[in-house]
Write a structure and sequence with these properties.
Blueprint (H helix, E strand, L loop, with lengths): L19 H14 L6 H14 L3 E5 L2 H11 L7 E5 L4 H9 L3 E5 L10 H6 L5 E4 L11 H10 L3 E5 L7 E2 L2 E2 L6 E5 L13 E5 L2 H10 L4 E3 L2 E2 L10 H10 L3 H19 L12 E2 L5 E4 L3 H10 L29 H9 E4 L7 H19 L1
Parallel strand pairs: 2-3, 2-4, 4-5, 5-8
Antiparallel strand pairs: 1-9, 6-7, 6-12, 8-9, 10-11, 13-14
Length: about 375
């Protein structure tokens, strides 16, 4: 009897299939233009991305890590300043804070939503604290109501890490529009992904926008005139053109992700722990993450059944060798550490069929039952 084809964890090209002719045309347009860096495609995408969010400014940059670093630098955060964020995130969040010259301060997560715990953030504030960087992890909005109030009360900068949350909403309001600045990644696996690296920032502050445009291009104000020390972090024309094609489809593709996630939630209730959706939150399910105390055995069983999974993220940043000097000993962030031992990400991507989702559910149920029998 023929075995069904394996279900991979992800297929980044799935989101391209329906718009491939338009992508081909966009690529040809760029190639024919003869202008490949900081040209009309970038300007048009910036305008469209800003309009999508209902903000005044968007600034394209080379990647999401640069976006966070440049947000901090544009706001004057640097040496001697502390920036509060989580240890349960991609290392890029903390890497960017470090590259800006600031001191990352890692705090715990809410054990039900896996996003920054506002109470833990407020408890970590010192006279040196300048900013809070909440991460909308897995496409789930962080508690921006509480964090906005804390930031305002303590006169802190609020920078949103939206790398995994393009199009997510809280109380009907898009993530990225709650803080002073917001950083996005267009890495190919993101909900709005390019075919290489790319990133952007959004803001309503003209001063931040002007400085970001300088900083991304060597601090240049005009050709060969440099007002400050910047970096080379420019979204290229080819990626901008592809993102312009894909942006109008973002909401529909996010709706499909939510549909698949609802299938998983309904089919796996009681078998695995499903993250809590806070009231008013509209996740875009960049990742579909579940928990089980026998996570590693469950993943092995699913692999035998042809179901791909990954872990996001198996080692919290405070336990990584590169960041042990931040002063968070093992056991200091208990919710983060427990979650990291139990989480795994199930297949969820554009192109995953309902029938494949049913297969994933059946495999998870059978594996869990075998582990508990």
């Amino acid at each position: 009897m023929t075995q069904p084809a394996p279900i991979p964890f992800n297929r980044p090209n799935g989101a391209h299939a329906a718009v491939l002719p338009d992508i081909d045309a966009a690529i040809r347009r760029v190639l024919d233009s003869g202008w490949y860096i900081l040209g009309g495609e970038v300007e048009a995408f910036e305008a469209e991305f800003a309009a999508y969010h209902g903000v005044n400014y968007a600034v394209g940059v080379a990647n999401g890590t640069d976006a966070i670093e440049l947000a901090l630098r544009a706001a004057g955060v640097g040496a001697g300043d502390e920036v509060i964020t989580v240890a349960h995130t991609a290392v890029a969040t903390v890497c960017a804070i470090d590259r800006a010259g600031a001191q990352p301060v890692l705090v715990d997560i809410d054990p039900q939503t896996y996003t920054l715990d506002p109470a833990a953030a407020e408890a970590a504030i010192t006279p040196r604290t300048k900013a809070i960087v909440p991460v909308h992890l897995y496409g789930q909005p962080a508690d921006m109501l509480a964090l906005s109030e804390i930031a305002a009360r303590h006169h802190l900068l609020l920078i949103e890490d939206c790398a995994q949350a393009h199009g997510a909403r809280l109380n009907g309001r898009l993530v990225g529009t709650w803080g002073h600045l917001a950083a996005f990644s267009f890495y190919p696996t993101k909900n709005l992904g390019a075919v290489g690296d790319g990133g952007a920032l959004i803001t309503n502050d003209e001063g931040y926008a002007l400085r970001l445009r300088r900083l991304r291009n060597y601090g240049q104000t005009s050709r060969y005139n440099h007002a400050e020390r910047g970096i080379n972090s420019r979204l290229d024309e080819l990626q901008a053109a592809i993102l312009r094609v894909k942006l109008p489809h973002l909401d529909a593709q996010n709706a499909r992700r939510r549909q698949i996630a609802r299938q998983y939630d309904a089919g796996l209730m009681g078998m695995v722990t499903i993250p809590l959706q806070r009231p008013g939150a509209e996740s875009v399910y960049h990742l579909c993450v579940v928990r089980h105390p026998a996570r590693d055995a469950l993943r092995a069983s699913l692999a035998d059944a042809g179901i791909g999974t990954l872990i996001h993220y198996p080692i919290p940043i405070h336990l990584q060798p590169a960041y042990r000097d931040l002063g968070c000993a093992p056991g200091s962030l208990p919710a983060t550490e427990q979650v990291s031992r139990e989480i795994m990400s199930l297949p969820l991507y554009i192109g995953l069929s309902d029938a494949q989702a049913v297969r994933v559910i059946a495999a998870v149920r059978a594996s869990v039952e075998a582990l508990t029998s």
